[in-house]
Amino acid sequence: MIATLRVTDTGWLTTFQDLGRVGSEQRGVPTGGAADQHSASVANLLVGNPRGAALVESVGGELALVPDRDVLVAVTGAPAYVTVGDLEIERWTPVLVPAGCELRVSDIHSGTRVYVAVGGALRAPRLLGSVAPDARMGFPQTIATGSAIEVETGFAGFDPAALDALADDEAALRLPVPELCFGEGEQGEWTVDVVESAELDRVPGMRELLAETLYTVTDRSNHVGLRLDGAVTHPESDEEIVSHGVPVGALEVPHADELIVLGRYRSLTAGYPIVGFATRASLPVLGQAGPGRALRFRWVDRRDAVLRHAAREHELRALEIAVRDSFARLGYSPRATPASALAEPGQHPTTR
Amino acid sequence: MNTSQALSVTAVPFGDSAVMLSTPGGSARADIIELRGRLLARRLPGVVDVVSGLESLLIEFDPLESSAEQVELAARLLAEVPADAGRGGDADASSPVRAPHRFDVPVVFDEETGPDLAAVAVEVGLEAAEVVRRIAGSTFTIALLGAAMAPMMDGLDLPRPVRRSTTPRTDVVPGSVMIAGSNAIIQPFPGPSGWRVVGRTPKRIVDIERDEPVSFAPGDTVRFVPVPRGEAEGDAHGGFLLPSGDGPGATGPDDAGPAADSRAAASTETEARA
């Protein structure tokens, strides 16, 4: 069946989003997708969706939706004030929004992005297999106030008897939710783990500088990259660097005195040395960093970076299984609807 | 051609989830296209994407399923294998990517569609009409798909590499044919560019309404065919760009341009858009 959510407020910018395009970079289209892949994945898992399902991303201002039938939603990402009707609700947990009641997200702070997942398959246009926006290719995916979002859903409420039976047993339905941890430091800075680039030694003093400097995200930042104010040095030799691909999270020193951390919409780059790479596990926090945010970098080795990512992946799998078990006890089986991430290994990129 | 020889490969880890491959040597640009074909034909486990640079391949992988070391080993093994081994004698039919196509792209070259034509002519020491003749006489090979699937091509035959604009344009119209270094590219969508604009095709290069938004791929060859403005405005030259036929059988440029211009040719993407 189809649930329709009327969009009554969209704040500054609200779009359809997912984990991005798979295999599109070999054809010149950046993977794109949620800058904070962790929060987007958790939102989907909390409502029983595959982690790569389409969802709604909002960057600032107020977002409000009114469903025409009961739907299951989860709100993750940056801290925010979330209500259903007049009632404040928790983030990072499944919430039932009754038909006709307004879900409202406001006061987004500390981070920049909030994700709202709705149980079921959200109907949205796709480009190269993904609903993620790509402004460069004329695919903005903006959700306008007054529009309607359709969700194909198998959710028809939980079994009341099962709910009653579990009413006194809070622990039975407690989910192991891996909330995004910003690890804020004394000066409000977030710490980002980085691994060295082979080119690092071409830039004298940069290794020490990067470890010591408190960098600040500037308002010249966007989905292509974060531009940071802070001390940098430049290569002594003007060695030629021709156009090449770069992973998300690459730290680039341009000719100006600034540091660029490339985001999910970067394309090829040339001419600038790459001094390091944010680890995969650090990318979600970077994806939440907005202008004014202080960042501190910490060198780690590649093996530790992979282990940290593996730990994240374990947490997501554990959540996925716990949600499935909890929903089953309440008489709801979302796996009956669209293809699950588990059923298609490799189809959905893991959090990156 | 280098389709039957072993390639030399170097691999450098690029963070925790990617490795950069290159093929050092005199024919780096042709070799990298060959290596790309061999890699894409095999679908290495855990590999998520393969990003072509002018002289490199960025292999992005899931670090829980693969590693820089495993990708490097696979690339070295593939580099040692003659390309036509095990292909039943018909390299084209079982070609990893597909047989190269040939494109004849109609282009209007005049002051309005090519605002940089006159300045480029002065820069390379030719008359504007001769620059157009040389561009039309060049056979380009698509080296890679650049930003928003734009075909980036090698093979511009001018007396010297073309410099980039000192001040990039903020809004270049779609279909613009642009040059820099010994490269050419076609602008698929409106947007900024530091390349020199020399003409415009009435063809639609990228159409996101189609399941396959482009009809070209790396290794395909392109020629620009001058057409008068009046004719270009008719229906004969418009519509989605489709191939004219099979290419000459080349899988890469025989003569990669002087490496020195590639920096000028390619310094953009982040610079102009980040």
How would you characterize the overall build of this protein?
The complex is a heterodimer of chains A (352) and B (274). By secondary structure, chain A is an alpha+beta fold. Chain A is built from 5 helices and 19 strands. Chain A has a 7-stranded antiparallel β-sheet with strand order 7-6-9-4-1-12-11, with no helix packed on it. In chain A, strand 16 and strand 17 form a beta hairpin. In chain A, helix 1 packs parallel to helix 5 (302-329). The longest helix of chain A has 28 residues, at 302-329. The radius of gyration of chain A is 21 Å and the shape is elongated. The model of chain A is unreliable at 337-352 (pLDDT under 50). Chain B has 2 domains: 10-80, Gyrase A, domain 2, CATH 3.30.1360.40; 101-273, Cyclophilin (Beta Barrel), CATH 2.40.100. Chain B has 7 helices and 14 strands. Chain B has helices at 28-42, 68-80, 117-124, 128-137, 229-233, 260-266, 268-273, and strands spanning 10-13, 18-22, 47-52, 56-61, 101-107, 140-145, 151-154, 169-172, 176-180, 183-186, 191-193, 196-200, 221-226, 245-246. Chain B has an 8-stranded mixed β-sheet. In chain B, a hairpin with a 5-residue loop joins strand 6 and strand 7 (151-154). Chains A and B meet through strand 18 and helix 5 of A and strand 3, strand 4, helix 6 and helix 7 of B.
**Total DSSP E strands of chain B:** 14
Query: Radius of gyration of chain B, Cα only, in angstroms?
Result: 19 Å
For this structure, what is the CATH class of the largest domain in chain B?
Mainly Beta
**End-to-end distance of chain B, in Å?**
38 Å
Number of domains of chain B: 2
Distance between the termini of chain A: 32 Å
What is the CATH topology of the largest domain in chain B? Cyclophilin
Order of helices and strands of chain B: EEHEEHEHHEEEEEEEEHEHH
Roughly what is the average pLDDT of chain B, rounded to an integer? 83
Low-confidence stretches of chain B: 86-96, 249-274
Oligomer: heterodimer
At the fourth CATH level, what is the homologous superfamily of the largest domain in chain B?
A: Cyclophilin-like
Average predicted local confidence, pLDDT of chain A: 91
Count of distinct structural domains of chain A: 2
The largest β sheet of chain B comes out as:
8 strands, mixed
Shape by Cα distribution of chain B? elongated
Number of helices of chain B: 7
